[in-house]
Design a protein that fits this description.
Blueprint (H helix, E strand, L loop, with lengths): L1 H18 L4 H23 L4 H22 L4 H44 L7 E5 L4 H6 L6 E6 L9 H9 L3 E7 L4 H9 L8 H22 L7 E6 L7 E5 L5 E6 L12 E5 L6 H15 L7 H5 L1
Parallel strand pairs: 2-3, 3-4
Antiparallel strand pairs: 1-7, 2-5, 5-6, 6-7
Helix pairs in contact: 2-3, 6-8
Length: 312
Amino acid sequence: MRGSRSFRKQYKEFQEFLRGKPALLPIFRGGTWLLAFTYFLYDSVHAHEKPIPSAIHAGVLVILSHLLVNTLFDHSEDDKLKAKRHLDSVVKPLKQGMNDMQQSINQLKDCIDEYTQIVSGQQNLDGMVAVHPKMDFDAFFDSATQGERIIMYDTFVPKFDKFLPSLTRAIERGVTVRFLVLDPDSNSAKQRQEEITFPHCIPFKKYSAGITDYVQAITELYAAVSKKFPDAIEARYFSFMPNMPIYVIEDNQGNPRRAFQGFYLRGSSENGHHGEWRFATATCSLSEFHRYLDEKWERNAVNAIPLESKAA
């Protein structure tokens, strides 16, 4: 009897202590679940792979443990409300953290999916859609539509007169053209001429004559279309060292829509490989090409090629 009274006294004291600590309630309840799960694992192993009886034992343990916890935490409504508020203050940031983590996981999945598409060829990195063995100027000019602009940035295009019919058709559709041409008297022209060694070296006179022939073809085109389309063609010289040939089509809003980009190596660039670029919302290479040409055009405003006087 004395031992029973001592236990009841200790139980009451412990209960009074817990009533002042409502935040311990979720800890005790979580502990009962952990204890039951641990028992389930232990009992499953020692029950020789018979999990159903172990689950029943664990369930009984959870029920008894919860009854004990609920008895210990026999709080007033105010205590319960305080405990709920405290629990909410803990759980709310935890939920937000879980939501943020889930969002990060979803973003990571999207990146993995995008990378998988790139690797598998379903999507092209950075807006590049193809690599062509050489530049097809006729097809490029034919792809431009009314209100668009073609920008030609190159040292010069050999035998450009053979492409004039397709470019004329584009102008007749309402397309305008800008040419940025390497100044034949510049040091950059000399340096580029010295680079061309395949299939054989080109004398500077022949190289500069190629630029002159290119300008002559542009002038002939201007003379043919200027009466009906006086603002269709503009041309300027540049004298800085060219980095690569770039050909761009702007849409009717002035945004780049399509581009081809070659390489200045040991041979003539138009017979080398060209990358084809399209607009990609998540990337900026095509836009960088476009901005680069815009800057070069503005920087050489004083170097306009007088097409009117040459065509006269």
